[in-house]
Specification:
heterodimer, A: mainly alpha, two-stranded antiparallel sheet, 2 strands, disordered C terminus, B: 282 residues, mainly alpha
Chain lengths: 296, 282
């Protein structure tokens, strides 16, 4: 049976490649662009082809330690020196990722505020038009994120927490918009396509997608209530059918007791609220036709 | 029903470590028509059947990784306890046995972890295997130090894992964070060893350990703030400093008390006695 999460052909290792040893007396801190090891006084600089290059400049850390006379000691220092450089680089990478994630968050907020107009019964096409404008912005931002990540292949999940909640929000808004337009559920691959994530190594995590869908479901009770207030008495029936189907589909999943499970548990409360609205409307004879749920 | 299609699709999904290939998905679900809209219950269920399959496989894998990690932990601890049985007279045989145990951990348990993780995104399930890997590093570095007085490098440990892998899958390699966390735990074991050696009258050995632990502590102070999760390392640093101080205090006691310093009861050196008391009094 094929393995899950299989990366295919052999890929770049996480380890730094072995480098040519040299003796170190003292190393001085200096943010410089390095090309080759050079000797000056007793200071030595480390070449940048030792590691996967994550940035153009490398820092040497100062350690006025013992002289390189004991080779075990200096090899210990060498190793830690490598680690420091590696970790500083990954720290910088993480900062760049956070910067893009914050931009994603602000574009999402704009999209959300556009979509909130739907509760005030603005005409749907107008609301959707404005919200859609942000999709291209998001596409661009995710592309930038993918580019940053491409500098350190195989570490998507190392930094995934830095864009996880933002992505869940994005998915919830996209699925809500899609539902408003078409009455259908945006699938995982359709969501990937909208964000331009279906072509690269950087994809949409399935669990992020599922959590986003749960967030979308949380919006529906409020939407239904406001639609009925505005006079749309058919809305509850449609939303009820959709949410019932969604809940049934979610029940097919075997979940662990994690965040996704909690969000999934929330769907049944949304479903109940929508059922109550549907019932309220139905028994008062407000629905135009007395159609049952099965009708489409 | 859609099981085999889902698994095939997830093999492709896996090829990019987590993404679905939309063209493949629609081909599998609707070979001749356009993708169906998710308006009907059944088409939503089709999609969710795939998600369910993905989650099942992921969770089952996670469980296997956790089990392997636990086995690695327990058996690495056995290696550590074996090394602690060292004394002046039996050093080589104790260490030989420890090496054998360590090799068994590598061949029987690390190999399972390697098999599960090779070719995948090593970071996705890190929380599941990190404790086991840290314990393994603790055991391996402990053995290496007792044999040669040097620190086993990350590159060296990872080299021992390479024979366990199956090309062309990318071989599982321990990352720098787990290595450093394991190293932090090593200092605790070294502290116990040092105190034990002092009781056994092996003062130079204890001093060697003291120098080594100090150096590791020093290097780790520079690295600690750069770690992905600072809190784990921070608390380990506090414990580590306590270990360093314990060793230093023990060495200090030996140094200051000099010839007063006597071995514990049970020592083979009968010419010493505890502050003048006979062995029979103790």
């Amino acid at each position: 049976m094929k393995r899950l999460l299989h990366n295919g052909p052999l890929r770049h290792s996480l380890n730094p490649k072995p480098y040519t040893p040299f003796s170190v007396a003292t190393i001085f801190r200096a943010p410089v662009i390095l090309t080759s090891p050079s000797h000056s006084f007793s200071s030595y600089l480390i070449t940048n082809d030792t590691f996967p290059s994550l940035s153009a400049t490398y820092c040497c850390c100062s350690s006025m330690g013992e002289s390189g006379a004991h080779s075990p000691s200096s090899s210990l220092e060498k190793q830690f020196e490598e680690f420091r450089v590696q970790l500083e680089d990954s720290g910088r990478l993480r900062e760049r990722i956070r910067a893009v994630a914050l931009e994603i968050e602000s574009a999402t907020r704009l999209m959300h505020s556009c979509l909130l107009l739907v509760h005030q019964s603005r005409p749907l096409p107008e609301v959707l038009e404005k919200a859609k404008g942000q999709i291209d912005v998001l596409k661009e931002l995710y592309h930038r994120l993918a580019q940053v990540l491409s500098e350190c292949p195989g570490q998507y999940y190392r930094y995934h927490g830095d864009w996880r909640s933002e992505t869940q929000m994005v998915v919830s808004l996209l699925t809500f918009m899609h539902w408003l337009e078409s009455g259908c559920l945006l699938t995982h691959s359709e969501a990937e396509e909208k964000l331009g994530l279906n072509t690269s190594d950087f994809g949409l995590d399935v669990e992020d997608y599922l959590v986003g869908v749960c967030f979308m479901s949380n919006e529906l009770p409020r939407y239904v209530v406001n639609q009925v207030t505005a006079g749309d008495y058919d809305c509850p029936r449609k939303v009820l059918k959709f949410l019932t189907d969604l809940h049934a589909a979610f029940r097919m999943l075997n979940l662990r007791n994690d965040f996704l499970r909690k969000k999934f548990d929330g769907i049944k409360y949304d479903l109940r609220k929508v059922e109550e609205v549907y019932y309220d409307v139905k028994i008062r004879g407000l629905t135009a036709n007395d159609g049952s749920i099965g009708e489409q | 029903m859609f099981c085999s299609a889902a698994i095939q699709k997830f093999a492709v999904l896996a090829a990019k470590s987590h993404r679905f290939h939309p063209a493949l998905e629609t081909a599998l679900l609707n070979p001749t028509k356009r993708p169906r809209k998710m308006s009907t219950e059944s088409s939503m269920k089709e999609a969710f059947a795939d998600y369910a399959e993905y989650l099942n496989q992921l969770n089952e894998k996670r469980e296997r990784v956790v089990k392997a990690s636990r086995d690695i932990t327990i058996n690495s601890k056995k290696v550590i306890f074996q090394v602690h049985r060292i004394s002046k007279d039996n050093k080589q045989e104790v260490l030989d046995k420890a090496e054998k145990y360590l090799a068994a951990v590598t061949d029987q348990y690390m190999s399972r972890l390697v098999k599960e993780l090779e070719g995948t995104d090593f970071w996705k399930l890190r929380r599941a295997y990190s404790p086991g890997v840290q314990e393994y590093i603790e055991a391996a570095t402990f053995c290496k130090f007792c044999e040669t007085g040097t620190l086993l490098n990350l590159a060296e440990i990872n080299a021992t894992l390479l024979p366990l892998s199956h090309p062309p899958l990318e071989p599982f390699q321990i990352n720098v964070l787990d290595y450093l966390l394991g190293l932090a735990d090593l200092t605790g074991e070294l502290m116990r060893l040092a105190i034990g050696r002092i009781s056994d009258r092996e003062l130079e050995y204890a001093q060697k350990i003291c120098r080594f632990v100090r150096e590791i502590y020093r290097e780790l102070t520079l690295v600690c703030p750069l770690m992905d999760e600072i809190d784990d390392m921070k608390s380990k640093m506090d414990t580590m400093l306590q270990s360093v101080v314990k060793i230093e205090n023990a060495c200090f006691s030996v140094h200051v008390r000099g010839s007063e310093y006597v071995p514990l009861l049970g020592s083979s050196n009968l010419s010493f006695s505890l502050l003048g008391a006979n062995n029979s009094d103790l």
